[in-house]
């Protein structure tokens, strides 16, 4: 009985339960407002289940245990909006775009991206879990937006959303890519630019040629940013003469700085 009680406690985290409930309510509202079909509901449901499972697992694996905190609550709200964007993008391939709803949810999510970090710093609740949660929400939003924009501008736009995941995969084979990176305002600016540019392209505010050039410029800046950081990590490796060890601290540092403080 004790084991069953522990198992149920692990599953029924109030934070993740609240997130799943909010996601379900948002999907119902989107259905009423825009008419989500099967594709949208399936994508939204899959996102809800995946978020609940991964966040629950992360909360129980984090050490030392800490309260969920106000900053993570903001990130959870943003993640809920990302789930709505995911459902709308999936539905756009089945029955046409819901541009107004997609733009509204994305705009609020991007604004909140500037809020959770400030809340964490001001309340003294910064943590590796919070940084990772923030990063994953950002990364997935950019990926989903790039999928949406690729439908009108071309498959090459997917490089924007995929680049961070390719970097993480490469770091599994090349441990020196897990090295810590110094803070960089240029990196943060380039990362923030990706979401803004993709939002503008998704909104259809520009002629196709102008949108194409704008998104291409964002991709070029992202390639430059990743290239600069990879070069810096390689120089550190060459100077030290040994690969970076696989430890949790460098891993947290590179996740915090390289991924989706932006992309």
From TrEMBL:
Gene3D superfamilies, per database record: 1.20.120.1760
Cellular component annotations (GO), alphabetically ordered: membrane
Transmembrane segments: 36-55, 76-94, 140-171, 191-224
A biological process from GO: phospholipid biosynthetic process
Pfam families in UniProt: CDP-OH_P_transf
Keyword annotations: Membrane, Transferase, Transmembrane, Transmembrane helix
Lineage: superkingdom: Bacteria
Keyword check for Transmembrane: yes
GO molecular function, one term: phosphotransferase activity, for other substituted phosphate groups
Family: Belongs to the CDP-alcohol phosphatidyltransferase class-I family.
Protein name: Phosphatidylglycerophosphate synthase
Source organism per UniProt: Streptomyces wuyuanensis
